[in-house]
Design goal:
With 282 residues, the chain is mainly α. The protein contains 9 helices and no strands. Helix content is 82%, strand content 0%.
């Protein structure tokens, strides 16, 4: 456990500036709301809907940005230790190759996006208050509803961050493995192979399972990450959001029992094994 903590600290020391910048980015929007000049015109939009939308934009928007950074960095992370030759240093220490890879994945695919989303959620709560006050006045602010919304949404966001990392691992670990083995051409080659293969299967053989499978993986990732992405339009209104969070969470947990999730874990496992094999071969 101490080795795991030490390796996590290494990830923090190496990437802390970029991670802190991502977490602080929503503060720019909050500062704009604090400016004394300018008007906030919201028309006939209900104040509680404005509060919900503001909170969602801050939290989910920042989380999406964090995941975009993860996707862009994934290929480079797979080759990092080999490129800077630090793998030789880790080999001289009592650190297993599997542990080193696992720490990198936990830090970048779980902890960083989750932390950025939670910090941005707190910023979004403050921004919601400012937006309602500037648009409608203090009398329109319903703190009880806003806090209940936040209290219901935070556990859902934490759960969604964990589930999203599982679904994302099926997409990113094969890309990382391809990058580790084929270097800079690995990720483009794999994406091109899947895309071209899917098109050939679809057009020539009327088989859509490959493209449909990739599409479903992306959808389940988004559904885990973004609450209310599926089915909320059938609810009674914004007042139903706190209760819907829990119903949505049940749906996302139920997705773990599907054959698609089993396939996702198989893909992630194969990707992890290939990363481990490449690292062991140096």
């Amino acid at each position: 456990m101490q080795v795991f903590k030490t390796l996590l600290l290494r990830e923090w020391m190496q990437h802390r500036i970029g991670w802190l910048a991502l977490a602080a980015l929503p503060l720019a929007g909050l500062l704009l709301l604090l400016l004394p000049y300018g008007e906030v015109t919201l028309g006939n939009t209900p104040s509680h809907l404005v509060a919900v939308m503001t909170l969602g934009v801050f939290a989910i928007g920042a989380g999406a940005q964090a995941w975009l950074v993860v996707a862009l960095q994934a290929a480079g992370l797979a080759r990092r230790d080999a490129q800077d030759r630090s793998v030789e240093l880790w080999r001289s220490l009592p650190v297993g190759d599997a542990t080193a890879i696992a720490v990198t994945l936990v830090a970048h695919l779980l902890l960083m996006p989750l932390a950025v989303t939670c910090v941005s959620g707190v910023t979004g709560l403050l921004a919601s208050v400012l937006m309602v006050v500037r648009g409608y006045g203090w009398q329109a602010l319903d703190m009880h509803y806003l806090l209940s919304m936040f209290a219901a949404g935070l556990p859902r966001v934490v759960l969604g961050g964990v589930l999203a990392s599982l679904w994302a691992s099926a997409l990113l670990l094969p890309l990382m493995a391809a990058s580790a083995w084929l270097k800079r051409w690995g990720a483009p080659a794999l994406i091109g192979l899947v895309g071209a293969g899917g098109m050939v299967l679809d057009k020539a053989y009327d088989q859509t399972w490959l493209l449909d499978g990739v599409r479903e993986l992306f959808f389940n990732f988004a559904a885990a990450l973004v609450p209310l992405v599926d089915g909320f339009e059938n609810q009674a209104g914004t007042e139903a959001v706190p209760a819907w969070f829990w119903l949505d969470a049940k749906h996302r947990l139920a997705d773990l029992g599907t054959p698609l999730f089993a396939l996702a874990m198989l893909l992630a496992g194969v990707g992890f094994y290939l990363l481990l094999l490449k690292r062991q071969r140096g």
